[in-house]
Design goal:
By secondary structure, the protein is an alpha+beta fold. It is 59% helix and 11% strand. It has helices spanning 6-20, 26-43, 49-70, 76-90, 175-179, 198-210, 219-229, 237-245, 256-271, 277-294, 299-316, 323-337, 345-360, 363-367, 373-399, 406-434, 440-457, 475-488, 495-519; strands at residues 96-110, 116-126, 138-144, 157-166, 182-193, 401-402, 465-466.
Length: 520
C-alpha cells in the first residue's frame, strides 16, 4: 500500500514542471486534478470512507503545494522578458563593470607548470544601472594564487571590477552549462564580505587549520576535505577525474551515507551521557543539523536530515516508521523552502537514487530484523545495483558517460566508508583541538589504497560507455522515471521482479531519448 502522502506527491511532481514552464495554467491543472479526485470518489464509494477521503485530501494538498511553490519560485518569465534587452548588450563590445557577486562554488585548478588558480562561480546581486539585466545571472572567474592570496568561500560577497563577457554555447549543450554563459576577465577585487553565518565561520576555521598540515604530496588533504564537507575544490584534477570515471564522486556529495554516519556517532556518544531517549535523540539531531550547516545545506544533506528527523520523531511518538513516507515528506519540505531546487542536479539525483533503492527493497526485507552476513551482502548488492540504475539517466544527460564497474566499486567502498569517514573525522578533530598530525600517516595510507583500487578497476576501458555530447534526455523522461516507480511499486511483490524492472526502466527511457534525438 502506498503511503497517504503519495497522493499529494504525484500532483506536485506533475504540476511543478508543467505549470512552472507555462505549458499549462495552474487553473487548468487544478481542474484536471479535481476531476480525477471526483472520478476516484465516485468509483470507490463502496470502499472504506476514511481511506478514500484521505487519498482525496492528499490530492487537494498536492494542488495547494503546487500553487505555493509556483508563486514562490521561478524567475524564468522575468528572464524571458529581459532576453531581448540582454541580447542587445551581447552584440556590443565587452566593457569593464563594477559588480557585486555572491560565491556559490569554488574549485582549484592547476596547469602544466604547476601554477595554482582558484576558479569561482557565483551569481550577480548588483550591477550598474545600465546593465541591470545581469542581476541574478551566473558567472565564473579565475584568480591566480599568490603570496597573501585571500581565500574566499561559498556564501561570501565579493565586490570586484572586471570585463564581463558572454560565452557562446551550442543549443545542444545542457541547461547547467547554458546557465553559466558569463565569465569575467581582468578581475580586480576591491572588497570581500565574509559570510557571518556561524557554520560558515566554523568551516573557515577548519579550512585554515587544515592548510597548516605538511606532508610529502598533500593530496590526501583534498580527499579529507571533500569526504567530510562535500567541498571538492582542493582535489587534484587527475584525482577528481578518476573519481568521476569510476562513478564514485557521490562519496563527496554529503548525503544519507554521511548524515547516517554522523547521526550514529552522535547518538552513540550522547546515549551514554543522557539516559533519556528523547534527550539524546534531540541532541543527536541538533548536532547533525550543525553538520548540515557546515557543509552548506546541500540538497542531498537536507533531504537526509529531514528523513532521519521524521524517522526519529516517529519513534518518539511510538509510530511505525515508513522510509517512503519520510522521503516524500522530505521532498515536499525542501521544495517549499527552495522551489527552484527541483531543477538542480544534486536534488534530482538525491531523490531519484533513494527512491530507486527503496523501490528495490521489498517491504518484507525492510522488516527483517537481526544481522546476518548473508543479508548484509545481499542488501549491499541491492543498494549498489539500484543506485547505479537510479542515477543512470541523469548521469548520461549531464556527463554523457557511465561506467558499469561502479556497481562493484561502490559495493566495496560503501561498506568501508564508515571506517574511512571515522578516520578522517578523528584526524580533523586532532588537528583542530590538539594540534596533532599523528593520524596523517593513517589517512594518507587509506587514501593511497582507495586510489590504487580505483585505478585497478579503471583499467577496463572497454567498460567505459560514452554517449554523444549532443545527446539530450528530455525533462519529461526524467519526470516519468520517478512517477513510474511510485505507480508501479504496489504491483510488484518480489525483490527480484523489482530489480529487473529498475534496470529495464532507464534502458527503455534511454532508447526513447535516443530515438527522439535521432528524429529531431
Amino acid at each position: 500500500m502506498r503511503p497517504p502522502i503519495t497522493y499529494a506527491l504525484i500532483p506536485l511532481l506533475v504540476g511543478l514542471p508543467v505549470c512552472g514552464v507555462g505549458n499549462l495554467s495552474f487553473e487548468k491543472f487544478a481542474s484536471c486534478c479535481l476531476i480525477i479526485a471526483l472520478l476516484y470518489w465516485s468509483v470507490n464509494k463502496a470502499k472504506k470512507r476514511s481511506l478514500v477521503y484521505r487519498k482525496i485530501t492528499g490530492i487537494f494538498f498536492g494542488i495547494v503545494l503546487v500553487y505555493v511553490c509556483i508563486h514562490g519560485q521561478y524567475t524564468r518569465n522575468a528572464e524571458i522578458i529581459e532576453k531581448e534587452h540582454s541580447n542587445t548588450w551581447k552584440m556590443m563590445p565587452p566593457r569593464e563593470l563594477d559588480l557585486t557577486l555572491k560565491i556559490t562554488r569554488r574549485n582549484d585548478l592547476k596547469n602544466q607548470n604547476e601554477i595554482n588558480f582558484q576558479v569561482y562561480e557565483g551569481y550577480i546581486i548588483d550591477a550598474p544601472e545600465v546593465r541591470m539585466d545581469l542581476v541574478n545571472k551566473k558567472v565564473t572567474w579565475i584568480l591566480k594564487k599568490r603570496n597573501g592570496f585571500q581565500e574566499m568561500l561559498k556564501g561570501d560577497t565579493v565586490y570586484l571590477c572586471g570585463v564581463i563577457k558572454h560565452r557562446r554555447l551550442n543549443e545542444s549543450q545542457n541547461n547547467e552549462k547554458r546557465r553559466n554563459q558569463y565569465y569575467i576577465e581582468h578581475v580586480l577585487i576591491s572588497k570581500v564580505e565574509q559570510n557571518t553565518d556561524f557554520f560558515r565561520n566554523l568551516k573557515r576555521e577548519i579550512d585554515s587549520k587544515l592548510k597548516i598540515i605538511e606532508n610529502t604530496d598533500g593530496k590526501y588533504k583534498g580527499f579529507v576535505y571533500a569526504l567530510l564537507f562535500g567541498d571538492r575544490s582542493q582535489l587534484e584534477i587527475q584525482d577528481a577525474k578518476l573519481f568521476e570515471e569510476t562513478g564514485t564522486m557521490h562519496l563527496f556529495a554529503v548525503s544519507g551515507l554521511h548524515i547516517g554516519i554522523v547521526y550514529l556517532i552522535c547518538s552513540f556518544i550522547l546515549r551514554r551521557i543522557f539516559p533519556g531517549r528523547s534527550i539524546w535523540i534531540a541532541g543527536s539531531l541538533l548536532l547533525v543539523f550543525g553538520y548540515v550547516g557546515i557543509v552548506g545545506y546541500a540538497s542531498s544533506a537536507c533531504r537526509a536530515f529531514v528523513m532521519i528527523s521524521i524517522w526519529q520523531i516517529s519513534m518518539l511518538l511510538h509510530k511505525k516508521g515508513n522510509p517512503l513516507s519520510a522521503l516524500y515528506w522530505a521532498f515536499i519540505v525542501l521544495l517549499l523552502i527552495a522551489p527552484n531546487s527541483l531543477f538542480s542536479l544534486g536534488f534530482q539525483l538525491s531523490f531519484t537514487v533513494v527512491l530507486s533503492i527503496l523501490f528495490c527493497f521489498h517491504k518484507k526485507s525492510l522488516a527483517n530484523k537481526g544481522f546476518s552476513l548473508c543479508n548484509f551482502i545481499k542488501n549491499s548488492i541491492i543498494i549498489s545495483y539500484s543506485s547505479f540504475f537510479g542515477s543512470t539517466l541523469l548521469i548520461i544527460d549531464h556527463f554523457h558517460f557511465i561506467n558499469p564497474t561502479s556497481i562493484v566499486i561502490n559495493l566495496i567502498l560503501v561498506n568501508l566508508v564508515f571506517g574511512i569517514f571515522l578516520i578522517c573525522l578523528l584526524f580533523v578533530i586532532s588537528v583542530l583541538f590538539l594540534g596533532s598530525h599523528t593520524l596523517s600517516f593513517l589517512v594518507e595510507s587509506t587514501y593511497s589504497i582507495i586510489v590504487f583500487l580505483l585505478n585497478l578497476f579503471n583499467q577496463f576501458d572497454y567498460l567505459h560507455i560514452r554517449f554523444p555530447k549532443d545527446l539530450d534526455i528530455p525533462n519529461l523522461i526524467h519526470l516519468l522515471y520517478p512517477i513510474t516507480l511510485i505507480i508501479v511499486m504496489p504491483y510488484l511483490s518480489g525483490t527480484r521482479h523489482r530489480l529487473i524492472f529498475v534496470s529495464c526502466l532507464p534502458t527503455f527511457f534511454l532508447i526513447v531519448s535516443l530515438y527522439i534525438n535521432w528524429a529531431s
